[in-house]
Design a protein that fits this description.
Layout: H1 2-19, H2 28-48, H3 53-74, H4 86-105, H5 110-131, H6 138-159
Length: 166
Amino acid sequence: MKPLFVSMILAGMATLWLSAPAQARPQDHDVNARQQHQQQRIGQGVRSGELSRGETRRLEREQRHIRQEKHDGQRGGWHNSASRDPGVNARQHNQRERIQDGWRDGSLTRAERHDLRDEQKAIRAEERMYKSDGVLTRAERQDLHHDQNVASQHIYQERHDAERRF
């Protein structure tokens, strides 16, 4: 539950940062302080044993992503708002978690997990291709949502079939 909460906080911070205009950012100090505080909380979780190695890596990766977005924004690297779709990213994260949960509880075999991960990779590659021109059109967004719906059905089917890992 805690990793989900921390991920939600990080996603919220990133969303707030992305929604602000790319010009003058008087809240830079606040963002830097929040990032530093978040880094301290991750360190505390590691020291206390509340965060596993995998959770720590995931949180560190999210922190690096936020720092990179901030850096890109300061360089003027933002594209128009149509190129960002937090709904697509949230669904990708949710589907990754569902696959991992299926692996942990044994409802996914190694082959099923591999196939589902490959499907997720293909969706991410398609998203990168669509965003490569700096614009995510309505049709492209709809296609991504359709692909994610299909992937979601596949995750459900694989987790609820008769095959078990153990």
